[in-house]
Specification:
By secondary structure, the chain is of the alpha+beta class. The protein is 25% helix and 38% strand. It has a 7-stranded antiparallel sheet. The relative contact order is 0.24.
Length: 154
C-alpha cells in the first residue's frame, strides 16, 4: 500500500498568539476550507479551543458532491507551537496532519505535514496521482488565500 506526504508552508504577517488563536479554534476550520468541499462541522457544543483527545465530526464532499462523514481526533497540542489531527473515520486508510507555527522576525511561519494513505491499494495510488494530490494542493492554496485575507500579505 502506498504512503504519501504533502507539505505546505505559509508566512503570515501576524503575531504568534493571533495565529494560534485563529488556527486552534474549531469554529475557524470552515473559514479556511473551499466552499465546494461542502465542509460542515457536525459536532455540537465544541469549545473555543482544541485540546488533546478532542473528537470533531464533519460532513465533507470531496468528490462529485458525494457527502462523507469524517471524524478526527486532536491527538497532540502544544500551545503556540503545534497541534496534530488524525482521522478516526473517513475516506483515508490513514491521515495524520501536523500544524506547526513558529515566530519569525516579521510574523509567523506555518508548516503543515500531511501524511496519508489512500484506500483501495493500487487504485488509491492511481487516485493519488490523478486526483488526491492535486485536491490537497487546491485546498491548501485556498487556505493560503483565506489566511492572507484575514491577516494580510507580506
Amino acid at each position: 500500500m502506498a504512503f504519501y506526504q504533502f507539505k505546505a508552508q505559509q508566512f503570515i504577517p501576524a503575531t504568534l498568539p493571533e495565529v494560534w488563536d485563529f488556527i486552534s479554534s474549531p469554529a475557524n476550520l470552515k473559514k479556511i476550507t473551499p466552499e465546494h468541499m461542502g465542509f460542515d462541522i457536525t459536532s455540537r457544543g465544541l469549545p473555543e479551543k482544541m485540546y488533546p483527545g478532542m473528537i470533531i465530526s464533519y460532513k465533507v464532499k470531496p468528490v462529485a458532491g458525494i457527502p462523507l462523514t469524517w471524524v478526527t481526533e486532536i491527538t497532540h497540542v502544544v500551545e503556540n507551537e503545534f497541534f496534530v489531527d488524525e482521522q478516526r473515520i473517513g475516506p483515508y486508510t490513514m491521515w495524520h496532519h501536523e500544524h506547526h507555527i513558529k515566530a519569525t522576525a516579521n510574523g509567523v511561519m506555518m508548516d503543515d505535514i500531511v501524511s496519508y494513505q489512500p484506500p483501495f491499494g493500487m487504485l488509491g495510488a492511481v487516485a493519488n496521482s490523478l486526483l488526491i494530490r492535486r485536491q490537497l494542493q487546491a485546498i491548501f492554496d485556498y487556505r493560503n488565500m483565506a489566511l492572507e485575507k484575514k491577516f494580510g500579505k507580506q
